[in-house]
Amino acid sequence: MASTIDLKGLVTWLELADAVIAEHADELTQLDAAIGDADHGTNMRRGMAAAVEAVAAGQFTTADAMLKKVGMTLVSTVGGASGPLYGTFFLRMGGALAGKDEIDAAALAAAVEAGIGGLVQRGKAAAGEKTMLDAWYPALEALTAHPGDVAEATRAAADAAAAGRDATEPMIATKGRASYLGERSTGHIDPGAASTALLLDALARAAAGETA
Amino acid sequence: MIGVVVVSHSPELAAAAVGLARGLMPPSEVRLETAAGTAEGTLGTDAMAIVEAIGRADDGEGVVVLMDLGSAVMSAQTAVEFLEPEVAQRTRLLAAPLVEGLFAAYSAATIGRDLDRVCAEAEKAVDAKKKQLAG
């Protein structure tokens, strides 16, 4: 049982996320090649590596300072749309954790909800439009449903995000580059939903005590 | 004087658009800045680079930002969140097409128009082309 995740756990999350994104970078780029501009894996790999480096270089005593640094690094280094999207997510997530160095499941759910608010504001998308939101919304629902234990909550969120990612396959994109393809965007998993599922899997592993 | 920022995925496109505007117009004191490409020189946009470009373009009167498309727009919106509130207040992101909007904004700024007027000129810049094609 892990009722909370601390700053060290958040750092581990980012390190595990960096590793899993690097491992799946080619796959993310291939998904993006089918319906986008074939740079999602490369961009995310560059951004996450820079974020981990920035976090390692700084001395952070609160979750908000650390996650805001991650957000600022992503908006500056990713290059594609996932930069402002994930960057804004982390900025808003940090904003919801002001002054905290230990986060329980309820605070984590509230922070993820704030992050999703940033994604909606930035991407002007809604559920069912074949975007990363289709992984984030089910994840938030799962987090909220497990208010007691962070490890349990994040595992449920990661599983829900993976199911959400798979559910983007038959969807028709109406946002982003994939929307130019219209009905031809169906039959492909959304790359943003795929990277979101990877980030949440890394979070669940960090919350369960795995080390990078 | 109103400053102008060009945001593009491509450093070459931004430089060429600026070169075209400067080359086809009389000499101007307008601060014309670009934020284009990633730090590694690949296609992409960098919100922090846009923040810096807006800072260079701003002399206190205001800045208009022209963008190419897609994530350039999202990065520009993100950049505005990082500006000091009073700078954000006088920074406008324009829906105008990049080349037409740049010409109109640059001309209006050159003759000393204020922020609202520069924006209005840029936003109606595509109308001239539409009229020409309609004829």
How would the blueprint of this fold be written?
The complex is a heterodimer of chains A (212) and B (135).
Chain A (H helix, E strand, L loop, with lengths): L3 E3 H17 L1 H11 L4 H18 L5 H15 L4 H14 L6 E3 H19 L9 H13 L4 H18 L23 H17 L5
Antiparallel strand pairs in A: 1-2
Helix pairs in contact in A: 1-3, 1-9, 2-3, 2-9, 3-4, 4-5, 5-6, 6-7, 7-8, 7-9, 8-9
Chain B lengths: L2 E6 L2 H14 L7 E5 L10 H11 L5 E5 L3 H12 L2 H5 L1 E4 L3 H13 L4 H9 L1 H10 L1
Parallel strand pairs in B: 1-2, 1-3, 3-4
Could you characterize the architecture of this molecule?
The complex is a heterodimer of chains A (212) and B (135). Chain A has helices at residues 7-23, 25-35, 40-57, 63-77, 82-95, 105-123, 133-145, 150-167, 191-207, and strands at 4-6, 102-104. With 212 residues, chain A is mostly helical. Chain A has one domain (4-207): Alpha Horseshoe (Serine Threonine Protein Phosphatase 5, Tetratricopeptide repeat), CATH 1.25.40. A two-stranded antiparallel ribbon of chain A has the order 1-2. Chain A starts with a strand and ends in a 5-residue tail after the last helix. Chain B is of the alpha/beta class and 135 residues long. Chain B is built from seven helices and four strands; from the N terminus they run βαβαβααβααα. Chain B has a four-stranded parallel beta sheet, with helices on both faces. Chain B is globular and about 45 Å long.
Which characteristics define this entry?
heterodimer, A: 212 residues, mainly alpha, Serine Threonine Protein Phosphatase 5, Tetratricopeptide repeat, 9 helices, 2 strands, globular, B: alpha/beta, Rossmann fold, four-stranded parallel beta sheet, 55% helix, phosphoenolpyruvate--glycerone phosphotransferase (chain B), EC 2.7.1.121 (chain B), PTS_EIIA_man-typ (chain B), PTS_EIIA_man-typ_sf (chain B)
